[in-house]
Amino acid sequence: MSIVLTSPLAATVCIQTLPVLSVMSQILLERRFATTSCQTGGKTAVPFHMRPTIPLVRQRTLGIGAQSLRMPTFGQLRPLAASAAEPALACPHDPDQLPHLPDPRPRPAVDTGINVQKYVQENYTPYSGDATFLAGPTEQTKKLWSDLERLLCTELEKGVLDVDPSKPSTITAFGPGYIDKDLEQVVGLQTDKPLKRAIKPLGGVNMVKAALESYGFKPDEEVDKIYSTVRKTHNSGVFDAYTDEMRAARKSGILTGLPDGYGRGRIIGDYRRVALYGIDALIAAKKTDVKHNLLGVMDEEKIRLREEVQEQIRALGELKEMAKSYGFDLGRPAQNSREAVQWLYFGYLGAVKEQDGAAMSLGRIDAFLDTYFERDLAAGTITEAEVQELVDHFVMKLRIVRQLRTPEYNALFAGDPTWVTCVLGGTDANGKPMVTKTSFRMLNTLYNLGPAPEPNLTVLWNENLPQAFKDFCSKVSLDTSSIQYESDQLMSRLFGSDYSIACCVSAMRVGKDMQYFGARANLPKLLLYTLNQGRDEVSGAQVGPKFAPVRNKDAPLDFEEVRAKLEDGMEWLASLYANTMNVIHYMHDKYDYERLQMALHDTFVRRLLAFGISGLSVVTDSLSAIKYAKVTPVYNEQGLMVDFIVDGSFPKYGNDDDRVDALAEWITSTFSKQLSKQHTYRNSIPTLSVLTITSNVVYGKKTGSTPDGRKKGEPFAPGANPLHGRDAHGALSSLNSVAKLPYSSCLDGISNTFSLIPQVLGKGGEAERAANLSSILDGYFVNGGHHINVNVLNRAMLMDAVEHPDKYPNLTIRVSGYAVHFARLTREQQLEVIARTFHETMLFEEGRRTIATTKLELNLDKFVTATNKFVATTNKRLKGLEDWQGVEDQNLEKEVTKAVKAYLIRSGFTDVRGVPNKKIIGPDGNILIEFDGLLAANKDEELFLVTVEAKHKVTTGLWLLGGLCVHTAAAAALFR
After folding, report:
1. Which one from 14, 91, 422, 503 is the annotated catalytic residue?
2. Alpha-carbon distance 37 to 8, whole Å?
3. What percentage of the chain exceeds 70 in pLDDT?
4. Is there a catalytic annotation at residue 503?
5. How many CB atoms lie within 10 A of CB 20?
6. Any idea what DSSP says for residue 575?
7. Given 38, 422, 504, 965, the catalytic residue
């Protein structure tokens, strides 16, 4: 017997062995079938995330009779599809439906020969083994890290350990600096002392003054004079060019976090080039471009680029000079492992000396460095302990990168982050895993040195990665909450095999793409502007255009009217946002150009213009409330909507309900389309992210009450997360909702922060929990998810850490796209983190109260081969269920119910109840299946189990429909 769903509902078929009680180990088989379709070339195609040919994400087998089934371990179930009146879910994750990302770069007349990707592809050694080869910290590492930890504790107490207010930082401004020269295997500091910060006034001298004063340092008068009267800064240029509308939008908070007073960041220099080629060859390559590839008609772009390349050449010369002060000759390529790490680090160090970008990411280095390590290990010139020591000391340096920030910046980007993002794993151009031993070594630093936010270790997850590596990553997440995961399956199709992540979730090809960072727009405030005729709901100021008033002021809001008004608002905001970004990045290129980072790119780069949105879940739930409940505005004396009365319930984003999830998809795709219509600076390609960092708290403060019931000043949810506490149907339902957001509309990334208590992943020990987390990650990414932070923590521990920070000096948590030391957050930010949903079950928490009494009516119309193999085994003996043997067909309903109930009680399940006389109706009105069943829960692990017996008109036998329902929809759809 087999099934396919043709109605708006979805079905799940699960097989399970009842004796096993941990969550993911009971998940044996799920298939989702639906008729929701996308039009492709005139043909109707089943969306990728709904196809029955789901890649197998976990190589486990279940023996049933004489057969073994290979199965995925994550459901692809959806509850109700959108009705005809609702926005339909697109096909966001079909690889055939992902957009083509254009590459407008001209082809150079002369090839410079720079090709790191080719070198890595031809020389790296894949590793599919486990972590047993790893080495612990050496005595030198322990001593060095102990010295640094003392300095870090002092820094935490003071806020800033030290600053030089008189010397603007450049690549060569400071002489050599050391932690302990005799111990360090990798040398080089931003200034002359560890954790001492430098000023970078090219971004804005007023920002430097504000930052210095906030930490008790006196600004230098000479520096102030030079950068106020002699040398213009990025910040001054931007505000000279801003329009009144731009200034008003910035002040009101509808455009926030803009890089108009600090370094924009999000540019990843290909620091591998320093090690592979040496500075002399890189300078020669740039001179080749000037001499041969930047000729012809001298238009503005070519003139500018010729000047920029000359600045790049100067920066490379300064990098060589800086390294020479430490006793190294970067002119030549690195010859061995030690030089490879040192050369690469010097490249990065030069960048963070020169720039204070909001995200100074590191790139993709694990397979590259591994080529040197493997060669030297094979030659016997280095040991595994020495390799790990090099990696540990390299990571120490990355952990102490610092920039001087203003209080306003710290409120938006809490915890003093630098986003030294370093990706691990992924696949190569042939789809082969790029996991190497150095991928493990980088993760091992979280044990040798302890948990830490930096570097921002990011695993490029692919279902084809070696299982041992996936389980080790999961173990690290369980132990440290320090790493994030992103979908290699999505990104590699657009960015190839040599891409990395800037900041949190922004993919780009290393050395070939750069990004213009643009923070984010406040969409809940935009919604309120469209309802208040363009006036700000907090100040009353006329910020936006005078949108038409609602048609009936005293009636509940009309969904179609509000949605149309929001779309008009998006058109206005997209234009304003793009123009503002054009001003910012023109001035940044003019006054604060990233000379060294761009020197480590191809001369001709593809430029991405990164827009962002905040408050997605608030707007989504607001539209849902207006559509499914009655939302009546409350006006103040100025006629502004300042609150809303919500009468009735409505589906909320985060519960795997297509009725509301489709609205989130509509919001992102509509705003993305509006952005794509805009003129962009230097022909950059607009992309969109759903990411807030920790600024969801600040954005909420600036925003009034919203139609979903959120009150004025309350925080938004971070990134693409559901609003706190609204994803009440279990962890996997929450993941499913976020996974529906289309990456095709959000190519700058979709951030999801996922927190759960350890017990959810089972009680069978560390290995089982790690394997179960790997299964969840496999399923989430196969299901179309783009990014996930994983926190496995107890809320009580975080509450204790608020009151007793000294007990948790290294407590690290993932927030929105990065990690942070919990103690570095403000109390307000700490409490907001604690208020987020901490999933205590993988399932529907309300299941026991509702499932057994809900009507079941699934429409089935035909059989498919996928489940026929299972049906052939239904009369076979099921392992562990001796009571099922010998049951007569005519007595199945009564006998099966009695036997299974007795078995469940013996197995430790409680609250076992019957689910009587359910029917599955075919499209012709005939009854296809009748059954009795049982619903049971294990209170310790909050498991919900549905077991039913079914009679089919062709095959009569024992059939388990549902099995362990691993998320809300699996139970709710079966018993709707």
Report:
1. 503
2. 11
3. 75
4. yes
5. 17
6. H
7. 504
